[in-house]
Design a protein that fits this description.
Elements lengths: L7 E10 L2 E11 L4 E6 L5 H8 L7 E6 L2 E3 L4 H6 L2 E4 L11 H6 L5 E2 L2 E2 L1 H14 L15 H14 L4 E5 L7 H16 L3 E6 L2 H7 L2 E6 L2 E7 L5 H9 L17 E10 L9 E9 L2 E6 L6 H9 L6 E6 L2 E2 L5 H6 L2 E4 L3 H5 L6 H5 L18 H14 L17 H14 L4 E5 L7 H16 L3 E6 L2 H7 L2 E6 L2 E6 L6 H8 L10
Helix pairs in contact: 14-15
Length: about 525
């Protein structure tokens, strides 16, 4: 067999950061026209390796070859010139620009100094049609859903005619339907001869689309396998180094008093004249996990903003343990026993340029434990508190409590937020997409934490787009569609298909269907 050179070959790559070797002598070989999955725990070095390939980082050792020739990639422009494109886990979009402007940014066609916007629009619309990536080219990024931003990022790559496509955790923010569409898009791209590197934690997706899979663990290369010849259990063992429980173990719920009472709540929409949440009522009791399910963009985010105080409500009321908190400031809600694991960990979860230890006490820095009577922070106590949480929740970072949060992997940022919110010992835990972007080992751990909160008599409001999570973790499911609750389902008796029908608006409780 003639040896066809690899589309991309990364040979003996080593990349160091303060206190950590992120990539330790890693070799990765991508064939032309294949979908090659890169699997590993949070902080295993997957995103770092891809950032080296995309020119965002320079490796201290090793080399990159394209079609057998050694290439030097000093920055993302070099990568683009070599036909390498990347969709980042945390999108690189200009919030106040439109979708169209973001796609053409950096490769604008001009004629006599004028931007050729119409031609660009035509190319974007034909790409969007061809790959099933429907977007509104004129919408501003700040007004569109995360799933829509994801599509914008993919169109950015296709617009540049890139041959090698890196998808970094591309499905972390998508709904089940969007994930199916994306996986189909990836298959179509590979069939057209494009080579895809697919970073993910989701074993189902690897089994469905990947040809081969390379595994990293703690920065080291573990091996590459043909996906057709292995099982999910094999992959998870390579990734975590032990057997993982995929099923959530829990006893039946024992609901007690109502902790959260939402009555006729309406929240305005930033995108349209119609309210994002209209006239929604439900209760969450101590000792139960109530899950809000739905396709992204059906009002779940706004509902949580209204309950947690991030947005003002336009009608209705919210009560916590019998007290009206509809207009209460966020700090008061927090002190009354509300914890919130937010959907967007960068925007609402962390101060990225603070250290890990300072992020751990964001809502409690004024406690006597952390601030003395003269108003000075008790640094020793803060450090000890952070170290305990880091240990307990297995938050991995280069420099422990003094690591700047921005430098941590997405999954470890998520674990830090979860540690902080659960440690407040809340009456109500609002968890929005708590396992987004986490590996199987971390998901197993977080699910145990959420169930433990329920068993300790806390009320848990879970908002999730992951159907597996909705079905296995919740005690009751409320489905949101276009800002309203259209059904209440029991996970023990419903099916994924029925849930999907409610989510798509094809079925409504009380309707004669």
């Amino acid at each position: 067999m003639n040896h066809v050179p690899y589309a991309i070959e990364m040979v003996n790559i080593t990349k160091r950061f303060p206190g950590i070797i992120a990539n330790d002598n890693v070799t990765l070989q991508l064939r032309r026209g294949e979908i090659h999955a890169l699997l590993g725990e949070n902080g295993a070095g997957k995103s770092t390796l891809m950032s080296v390939l995309f020119g965002l980082y320079q490796a201290e050792e090793g080399e990159i070859r394209k079609n057998g020739e050694v290439v030097k990639i000093n920055n993302p422009n070099d990568a683009n010139d070599l036909g390498i494109g990347m969709v980042h886990q945390h999108f690189k979009l200009v919030e106040c620009f439109s979708v169209l402007d973001n796609i053409i940014l950096g490769v604008e066609d001009t004629k006599n100094g004028m931007l050729q916007r119409e031609q660009a629009r035509e190319k974007v619309m034909s790409l969007s049609k061809r790959y099933g990536l429907s977007v509104d080219p004129d919408a501003l990024i700040e007004d569109i859903s995360v799933g829509m931003q994801q599509r914008t990022e993919i169109l950015k790559m296709l617009y540049r005619d890139n041959e090698i496509l890196i998808f970094d955790e591309p499905t972390a923010v998508l709904t089940p339907q969007e994930i199916d569409e994306l996986l189909q898009i990836m298959k179509n791209l590979a069939a057209e001869g494009k080579s895809i590197l697919f970073i993910t934690h989701k074993l189902n997706e690897i089994m469905e689309v990947a040809d081969r899979c390379s595994v990293l663990r703690k920065g080291k290369y573990i091996g590459t396998v043909d996906v057709a010849g292995c099982s999910k259990a094999d992959l998870s063992r390579m990734m975590v180094g032990r057997d993982v429980e995929f099923a959530v173990q829990k006893e039946p719920a024992k609901p007690a008093d109502v902790v959260l009472q939402v009555e006729n709540l309406s929240v305005a929409s930033k995108r349209s004249k119609k309210n994002a949440v209209s006239n929604v009522s439900f209760d969450v009791r101590a000792g139960e996990i109530v899950c809000i399910a739905g396709i992204d963009g059906n009002g779940q985010s706004e509902l949580v903003f209204g309950i947690s105080g991030l947005e003002n409500v336009v009608g209705g009321s919210v009560k916590l343990c019998g007290q009206d908190i509809t207009r209460a400031p966020i700090r008061k809600r927090s002190l009354m026993g509300m914890s919130h694991i937010p959907e967007d960990r960068h925007k609402h979860g962390l101060v990225l340029d603070y250290t890990l230890e300072d992020n751990m006490i964001l809502q409690r820095y004024f406690d006597p434990e952390f601030t003395n009577k003269f108003g000075f922070l008790r640094r020793k106590n803060i450090r000890a508190f952070a170290e305990r949480l880091i240990e307990q929740y297995d938050v991995r970072s280069g420099q422990g409590p003094i690591t700047v949060s921005r430098a941590m992997s997405g999954g470890n940022q998520q674990k830090a937020i979860i540690a902080r919110e659960i440690e407040k010992d809340p009456q109500l835990l609002i968890a929005v997409q708590p396992t987004r972007g986490l590996d199987v080992g971390a998901i197993e751990y977080i699910h145990k934490q959420i169930v433990a909160q329920r068993d300790a008599g806390k009320a848990v409001l879970l908002v999730s787009l992951e159907l597996d999570e909705v079905m296995t973790v919740s005690d009751r499911i409320l489905v949101m569609y276009e800002g309203e609750i259209v059904g209440e389902l029991d996970p023990k008796t419903t099916t994924v298909e029925e849930l999907g029908l409610y989510m798509a608006g094809a079925k409504k409780e009380g309707s004669a269907q």
